[in-house]
Amino acid sequence: MPLIVMCGYPCSGKTLRAEELKAHFEETTDRQVHIVGDRALGVDRNSVYADSQKEKDTRASLKAEVERKVNKDNIVILDSLNYIKGYRYELFCLTKHAQTPHCLVHCLTSGEESSLWNKNREAAEQYSQDIFDGLVQRFEAPDSRNRWDSPLFTVLKDDVPPLEAVSDALFKRKAPPPNQSTQSQPLSSTNFLYELDKITQDVLMAIFNAQKTSVPGDLISVPGATEKISFMTANMAELRKLRRQFISYSKMHPTEKTGQIANMFVQYLNKGLH
User: Chain-wide mean pLDDT for the chain?
Assistant: First the structure.
């Protein structure tokens, strides 16, 4: 049955999201759910991704395993880098031939963030820095305008996984409704989402630090914004909730001018905190 293709930098949370999807479909459907990926094949990442022929052979093995498992009864999740658009096109052709729907889940992180997660892994699970940097450099970001990258769900690290939207896209054969993970982005969508995540996090940290010395009524300056926040006591849980709401709204109304994000977020907080 349907194929879900995971996509993203090394150490961007793909396996976690794949497991969340698997658990959801096992709970809500009677279908078998198979995760196909590097780990299941016992891939030695640093060996495979250092050798173009080995990498090509691994992609072929993954594709063959997907082809074997895709049928009218199963849900298949391909948990691998899938960073080459030509390879994603091959997977699209495979599902087209099998007459089954597919979708792409892009776990979006910055290179710096993924690198930190990589370093925090067990030594045996880590990519070497050279291999990691090379994979990030070669990554070809998905574009929902390409039929092989659509439907596309872009998921940030703090996002609630779009489980129902993915289910609708696969089983109802219609585009999922707009939400925080499925939006029409500007041409620089990857950069926009990264900047949105980073800038809003920086603003929250500035507020958190300012709370230690500020009193109600003070005006707090935050990085990248000319607007100031009128200080009122708020806990981090409330601030994070407002941040998630702002990110959700911004994904539905993206702007090419990332320099405006900080001011927009400050204005949003001033309204939400009063």
Answer: 85
